[in-house]
Every structure is written in structure tokens, then in C-alpha cells.
Amino acid sequence: MKFTRGDSSRQDDAGSSPAGKSQLPDRLMLWVDQVGGYLICLKEEVSLGAVTGGAAEVDIPVMANLSRQHATIHRRGETYLVSAQGPTFLEGRPVEYEAYLSSNSQLKLAGVEFRFRQPTVLSATAVLDPLTSHRIAEGAEGIVLMEGLCLLGPATDHHIVCRHWTDPIILFRRGDQLLCKSPGPLFVDEELVQEEAIIQHGNIIAGTESRFRVEYC
């Protein structure tokens, strides 16, 4: 079951910790109230391609006329590059094999367009903002390529901009765990967080004016 925009409170049929979903996956969704859904990709290499009707064969499946494996984005240290398996353009120029991505560059896969950005020097984490109306299979309104940490909050240099929030929330990895913390009051499933907390599938994270739900893909 998916959540609609602005609804982080609904629970799936299996509860907040279903069997087989305790281990951190390669992808997860954040359903952020009054903002929307964001697909978080944790791998150093993510593939983009068409939805084929069955299980997703790529990390970022798009409902569009793309190849099954259309392009791949690689993270190498603090830089990113894209390799093309189908028609791919970067800033209007065709990518013959691979090309480095710079912040605020425009990436086009056939008729599907994204803006690639790295909003802060605090992390190599990058964001893909869809520029066309093609639907991402998970219903995501944005894609975060997470390296180390992901910032959610009101500032323009946050990865997920939540303009109505007062305090930011920081997601970060420690080994095989995903954790959260905030300079303001923070709750995980209505329990007050002391400094930081591990978050898992089904958790609802809330602050003074913030709220989102975690869903493993």
C-alpha cells in the first residue's frame, strides 16, 4: 500500500515491522507530509529504465518509452558520472559512452528529463528532480542518491526542501543502519529521541512541524 501526498500516518497491512524488512535495503521511500514522496537510493551505482510490468529490473523505473536498462549513474568519491545504454543527453549533448555530471545540469533520457543537483558541500549526496510528467514507479516526486547523509528541512541547500518546517532532520548511515537526528525535538513512533535514533520500515518520524514515514522498497 502506498501513501498519498501529505499522508504519513497510514499503516500497511503487515504493520510497522513486517517480516523480511528489518535489513536496510538498497532503496526506500520517504513519504513527507505536505511535500510528497522521495525515493532514496543507497547504492553507489543506480540504473534507470522503463517499467516492464513485472518486478523492477532497474533502481529507478520510469513509466516512459525507455530501454529496460537505459542509463546508469555512478558515484565515484564525491563526483558522479552517467553511462548511456540508450539515447542519453547531458545539457543537450549526446552521451556516447559516459560523462561527468555537474550540479544543476540537465539529464535527458529519450523524452524523460531530470535536473541533477548537489545542493550542499556537507555531503556528496545528490538529487534528481524530474522535469517532465513521466511517473516514477514508486510514485516519487524526487530521487535522492544518498552518500552518507540526507538533509530534510526548509533551506534551499537541503536535499529534500520542506519549506514549512522549523528544524531540519538529518538522516545518516552508520554501517548497515539508518539513523536520524535533529537540533529540535524529534520523535520516532511518538517516542522522544535522545540525540539520535535508528529508523526502520514503517517508522513515523516527527518534529515540531515535520512528519514523514519510512517505507522500504
TrEMBL record:
Quote the Gene3D superfamilies the UniProt record gives.
2.60.200.20
Instruction: List the InterPro entries hit by this protein, alphabetically.
Output: SMAD_FHA_dom_sf
Q: Where is the composition biased (Basic and acidic residues)?
A: 1-13
Region called Disordered, residue ranges: 1-22
Output this protein's name: FHA domain-containing protein
Q: Which organism is it from?
A: Polystyrenella longa
What are the top taxonomic ranks of the organism?
Bacteria, Pseudomonadati, Planctomycetota, Planctomycetia, Planctomycetales
